[in-house]
Amino acid sequence: MDDWLKYSEEVEASWVTVDLAIFTLRDDQLMVLLIERGVEPFLGRPALPGGYVQKGETLRAGALRELWEEAGIDASRLHLEQLGAYGEPRRDPRGRVVTIAYLALGPDLPAPVGGTDAERAYWFPVSQLHKQSYELAFDHADILSDALEEVRRKLEYTAVATAFCGKSFTLTELRTVYEVVWGQHLDPSNFRRKVIKTAGFVQPTGEQRLPPTGRPAALYRRGEAWLLSPPLLRGGGQSA
Amino acid sequence: MDDWLKYSEEVEASWVTVDLAIFTLRDDQLMVLLIERGVEPFLGRPALPGGYVQKGETLRAGALRELWEEAGIDASRLHLEQLGAYGEPRRDPRGRVVTIAYLALGPDLPAPVGGTDAERAYWFPVSQLHKQSYELAFDHADILSDALEEVRRKLEYTAVATAFCGKSFTLTELRTVYEVVWGQHLDPSNFRRKVIKTAGFVQPTGEQRLPPTGRPAALYRRGEAWLLSPPLLRGGGQSA
DNA sequence: CCCCTAAAGGTCATATTGACTTAAACAAGG
DNA sequence: CCTTGTTTAAGTCAATATGACCTTTAGGGG
């Protein structure tokens, strides 16, 4: 640690945290997990779940642990990817805190339970975020906004939409993911055609599922491909 | 800082650094800026430029400052975007150091000059990186690999290729960027057609440039669009 | 058996792509 | 001042993909 000395005036120790923007679909709405902060600063304010990275812990492991501690969610089944680092000097009143934001997606997840630092945890509809009175703690509004944009873009050129579905799913369910996340209607027929001919996106399980009414739907599971080529572009309001 | 106390056993102070993967094109080769480390650890080994973030400094400002200090490059004209955070517990032998990696792109840049912590700085051809004997310090090989993949993907759906060109450029120059970065030949005619009809990608300046021989080429500048729709996909080896 | 519903599959005009050809604009050389 | 070489620019065309529809199929319930 010798060569740190000459920086003693300019370099400072930092604390590193992880924050999670975790999304799921509940009754055809895109929901994000928020907590009500149980400690200062921003006590009582809504925030993304997160907390300090611990000794010897990878960033990813820290994200998984915080999700479990603050909301009782086992993220091992989730899609989890890093979003980026947020390190504005004054983003945390307690000192220099750099946070690594993670993006998580999962199928219809259980109601979360509050944890140690979180008074309570709950699913909140993304569509209601703009409502005044909903000011998130720290710079979490920025993080959440970036996370949303990332999800919407990733639906286009990766198979990440399947992370919102169960192990097997119908094409209608998959299309609903796109419709809800993009907030636009897609033509069922054209959507089916594109998805099926996109190599490695989905593969039929051979089984079926009965809808409440109507013809049985074939079930699919994720294919091997992660990157979609060609991608499913959301053009300007079209239908597939 | 009160609530940090209860974590005293598990939470540790960290040092935050920035590292830069900066690319440019020099005589039709993709080059990355490397430095030879002038201090321990990894003294004498090649590495990405980078260093500690200072007090009150944003991460981005730290990246710009390090680039100037270690290679004498003024990055204010460059395209600079965050790549992600790398925080494996043992990635730095000196202790817990989390680095925020930045990706920078610029037009044919001047030969860099060595700085304080860098014995020397130099442009290195990306194509030569796999060569054994070229083992970068820390986890910089991972960062560089991620940066390369990011550049290649971003060429597809953003106008970032223009960052490799000067203020005005010919379509042949722009095409060369794609060809060098993707390592694949593109049909000049089809490339022209796509670029021109992609709204907001480029706009003609009205001026021309005389090539060493042949018909004058029209000059273009960047358009207003950042996201390309439709994107320029690199399919499977085709021509536009 | 008939009706309702949702899935699955088909049609068709238009737009886009990839491969290729042709025309245009300069410099140099005889 | 006409020819040649070279590079940019523009055009052709068959194959494919897309967007907007329509039709058929396979259930359940009355």
TrEMBL record, chains A, B:
PROSITE patterns membership: NUDIX, NUDIX_BOX
SUPFAM superfamilies: Nudix (SSF55811), Winged helix' DNA-binding domain (SSF46785)
Residues in Nudix hydrolase domain copies: 15-149
GO molecular function: hydrolase activity
Signal peptide boundaries: none
Keywords associated with the record: Hydrolase
Protein name, per record: NUDIX hydrolase
Organism: Streptomyces nanshensis
